[in-house]
Amino acid sequence: MSTNWQNNRAARDARIAAGAGFARGKVVEASDATRLLEAVIRPGDRVCLEGDNQKQADLLSRALLAVDLSRVNDLHMVQSGVVLPEHLDLFERGVARRLDYAYSGPQSARIARMLFGGKIELGAVHTYLELFARYFIDLTPQVALIAAVSADREGNLYTGPNTEDTPTVVEATAFKDGIVIAQVNEIVETVPRVDIPADRVHFIVKSDKPFFVEPLFTRDPAAITEGQILTAMLAIKGIYAPYGVQRLNHGIGFSTAAIELLLPTFGERLGLKGKIATHFALNPHPALIPAIESGWVRQIHSFGSEVGMDDYIRARSDVYFTGPDGSLRSNRAFCQTAGLYACDMFIGSTLQIDLQGNSSTVTTSRIAGFGGAPNMGADARGRRHPSEPWLKAGAEADPDGAALMRRGRKLVVQIGETFGDKNVPLFVEKLDAIELAEKLNLELAPIMIYGDDVTHIVTEEGVANLLLCRTAQEREQAIRGVAGYTDVGRRRDHGMVAQLRERGVIRRPEDLGINPLDADRSLLAARSIKDLVRWSGGLYAPPSKFRNW
Amino acid sequence: MEDLRFQHRVRARAGGIRKSAIVGVVASGNLEVLVERVLPDTECALDIKTAAIGFGEVWTAVIGDFVERYSPGGLRFSINDGGARPDTVSLRLAQAVRLIAENGQ
């Protein structure tokens, strides 16, 4: 009896042969992209259409949307970002049926409608690292449609500053008999550096215009409010300083942008330079330019890049990771791992926090997905190296434990104003995520960060240190005690909140020596995008939507 | 639009000699506060025109805490609110008290 152990390899070779009819070497004309996809994709395939929160294989998305449904249908999309309208049009049209993903920022409202309408069969909403992990176990793509800056004739790819997910997607696909198709902005004699070696790439499609990149990490300092400045001051003085947090990740909200802009001013006055915020897992946030220029930041590893930051990064290679060509090399999987294992703090904002500290960005009409926050905002149970903040947090959580046997704790900080946009309260009795899970019959509510991972909550009313809470009731009152004038905040037990404040579980601005009246925009190292350009010595080139000059 | 009015008895007169002051701007999510020293020393009044409807309870709590904390005796506040968050309201009121307590006209 003979068994064939190489069926998948044979199938891959057959797909390549079928696609070769549309290629010269590996190069396929953009006008033949749909025919190429019809030739190499089979009904029911698992397809990774590269799209993450920034870079998009937009030409290949459109090409896939145009396929003949009798040849390509019922695909199972396994992609980190559902970001372009075409990503969902695939499901409307029946090209795709099943979806496993991580992030859906701009499509969050439509994806919710389609899930309710049964247009999409949902596998699960993942974190980035979790979805990447599944690429190697049970969600390995048969076909990957990726985006690169340039290719040579052999198929070596330069993915440039926005390398992001590409190496991970290609690794999982190419080494398990899958097909890799890359859209490239240009075909060149020699690529500036080889990000993806040619033998992992089967077809190249020359795009008529550069792939789309979203400037997702640019926060205009002009929009930062006094409330955000106050919360930023509380975070710096109440958390960064006492724990001595040097290795960290910042979320993308305005509160963390305010922290970045306060380091060279407020932070400098507190004598914290060199003691906090020296090593980051972080995209190239323009708001960090003043701190970098002032000598605060030693090293940054990035998930992706940011529009307009290329020349600045190139000129600051001591700070960023760059290739032999001088441009940024980002890598989402590695940076997520770095954030999980090598950072002592995550600080970011959310849309809803409940009385146990669980948080979610899901509302009943929007499913934004998780992206990386759950990995950044979680204690890594496999961590074994000590550090001052990690050990201190561990000791606060378990003061009676034996020091040599006590796990440290990652600082997971939720920062925000008690009322968000349109006066919607940040604090709620019950998360919308639970209602959504009930309506959609999900086995698990989409919780961004579980309450037992959260160590601190910072609002304009103060800092709540949940590590010091000993009972569920203390925890609830500590949260109510910084929930301001929201319903949750107004229903606090005043006596218990006063006790928690005496114990230092809750710290008000005055307990930290901060006068809310000092929370002034003049404290920001840059007060506009133009200021950031000036700090960068003209190297930062903001996209036009952020220019008003 | 909703009009709200609060009157409180307070323990002490607000500091300074300035007759009036203005802080903030009328804009979405922001508010303008005009404060005038026109009342007896143990009284304080706040007249609010707000774009956000149904936040009466929150205003009551915000104003109660403000009066307790700053004792703004003798002051009348006229507030033009563009749907500001409660923390912004607290901040502007505190700024108004600080400004009128400064020396000057």
TrEMBL record, chain A:
Pfam families to which the protein is assigned, alphabetical: Mal_decarbox_Al
Superkingdom per UniProt: Bacteria
InterPro entries referenced in this protein's UniProt entry, alphabetically: MadA, NagB/RpiA_transferase-like
Annotated GO MF terms: transferase activity
Coiled-coil regions, chain positions: none
The protein's name in its UniProt record: Malonate decarboxylase alpha subunit
Species: Bradyrhizobium huanghuaihaiense
TrEMBL record, chain B:
Cytoplasm found in the keyword field: yes
GO molecular function, one term: acyl carrier activity
Keywords: Cytoplasm, Phosphoprotein
Subcellular location: Cytoplasm
Nucleotidyltransferase recorded as keyword: no
InterPro entries in alphabetical order: Mal_deCO2ase/Cit_lyase_ACP, Malonate_deCO2ase_dsu
Family the entry assigns: Belongs to the MdcC family.
Domain of life per record: Bacteria
Post-translational modification: Covalently binds the prosthetic group of malonate decarboxylase.
Protein name as catalogued: Malonate decarboxylase acyl carrier protein
Modified residues (O-(phosphoribosyl dephospho-coenzyme A)serine): S28
Described function: Subunit of malonate decarboxylase, it is an acyl carrier protein to which acetyl and malonyl thioester residues are bound via a 2'-(5''-phosphoribosyl)-3'-dephospho-CoA prosthetic group and turn over during the catalytic mechanism.
Primary location recorded for the protein, binned into one broad class: cytoplasm
Short name of one Pfam family: ACP
Cross-referenced HAMAP family: Malonate_deCO2ase_dsu
GO cellular component: cytoplasm
